[in-house]
Amino acid sequence: TESDPARCAEFLGALAGDLAGKPLLLPTRDHDVHFIIRYREQLARDYLLAYPDSAVLAAILDKSELARAAAAVDVHSPVSMEVACSADLEKLHGNISFPCIVKPVIASHWRRGEIRNIVQRQKALRIESFAELQEIYQAIEAHDPRVTVQEYIPGPESNLVIFGSYCDRDSRVKASFTARKRLQYPATAGTGVVVEACPVPAIVAMSEQLLQAVGYVGMSEIEYKYDALRDRYVLIEINTRHWDQHGLGTAVGVNLSEVLYQDMLGGRPPTCQQSATPVCWLAEDGFLLSLIGNAKHRAYPWREYWDILRAKKSLAVFRWGDAKPALFLLRTIVADFFLRCARF
Fold first, then answer.
1. How far is Cα 326 from Cα 332, in angstroms, rounded to an integer?
2. 160 - beta bridge partners?
3. Would you write out the chain's pLDDT as a tens digit for each of its 344 residues?
4. What is the largest CA-CA distance in the chain?
5. Would you tell me how many other CB atoms lie within 10 Å of the CB of residue 58?
6. Are 86 and 137 in contact (CB under 8 A)?
7. What is residue 168's three-state secondary structure?
8. How many CB atoms lie within 10 A of CB 46?
9. DSSP labels, 222-249
């Protein structure tokens, strides 16, 4: 869907003709979501799409549009400013506090081409000074001039919480679970590599209200951060697809994929309720990188790693009954390690 979307659409059209019935099409990356927006009419002829219309999707993927929609239902967002050119950036001088966060207006724009290397594959950057902000913007402007400069909400990773859910065609939440992050890699502005499913009742009603207000349909992950200074949760983003830790729900009794499948195909979705027992989802490669990086940066107390290893876990890749994916991941990690050593 990223390198040749037209050819992909053609392939999916031909594939549907060889399949019995109308299959369900489920994207797993942001690029796939943009692909569905672009080819929605064509795909809908051959596939079932658990998604709202393209205008709703596009608005959710645009962080500025999403913040406006959230404000309309009293869901708070961090103070943000959109920058589209160097002149916009200069206007921020003296009007922004540091550290701050810089992220793309459209998340997938930082996951392609040269810009992915410039931002070191991170989805957001923590910036410590205006000089650093100028330097990073100068590097990325030619590739993606539209960025969001956002206030940094202080607090540990455990203040980052998640509402994962499936909404039916009437935008009603049919099943959901909540979780909080334990570790990110890189720390403070990276991807969650350890996420703990646990009750977070404060975000349930506001999440259901937000999804209803925007007319959302399908599976999603809403991420918030607790702002201790203002005693409230603020909206960070909505992932409009299956995401890395969606399987964590199954470990605590909420199989969102099954609910989606049964609902879309006219079956009877199971009644789900999240277990109160915490379970940690652990990405093996990310956890290892975090552990190694912590030796240098001391982003987390060592006790945190020990507590995670002792906790009840759901591993991202390894399964006793099917070790091949884990072995492939191990081979990739080892090859990457030796490549880095050679470059060094």
1. 10
2. 225
3. 777 899 999 999 999 988 888 899 999 888 899 999 999 999 999 999 999 989 999 999 988 899 999 999 999 999 999 999 999 999 998 888 999 999 998 888 888 878 988 988 788 899 999 999 999 999 999 999 999 999 999 999 899 999 999 999 999 999 999 999 999 988 877 789 999 999 999 999 999 999 999 999 999 999 999 999 999 999 999 999 999 999 999 999 999 999 999 999 999 999 999 999 999 999 999 998 899 889 888 989 999 999 999 999 999 998 888 989 989 988 887 887 777 666 65
4. 62
5. 14
6. yes
7. coil
8. 17
9. EEEEEETTTTEEEEEEEE-S--TTTTHH
DSSP-derived pairing of the beta strands 160-167 and 173-185: antiparallel
| Distance set, CA 173 to CA 24, 163, 177, 245 (Å) | 20, 11, 11, 19
Give the DSSP letter string of 255-298. Answer: -HHHHHHHHHTT--PPP----SS-EEEE-HHHHHHHHHHHHHH-
What's the rounded Cα separation, in Å, for the pair 104 and 107?
5
Q: Is the sign of the CA dihedral 258, 209, 169, 220 positive or negative?
A: negative
User: What are the structure tokens assigned to 117, written together?
Assistant: 């290397």
Q: Are 101 and 155 in contact (CB under 8 A)?
A: no
The residue assigned the tokens 């051959």 is 46
pTM, to two decimals: 0.90
**How does strand 100-104 pair with strand 147-151?**
antiparallel
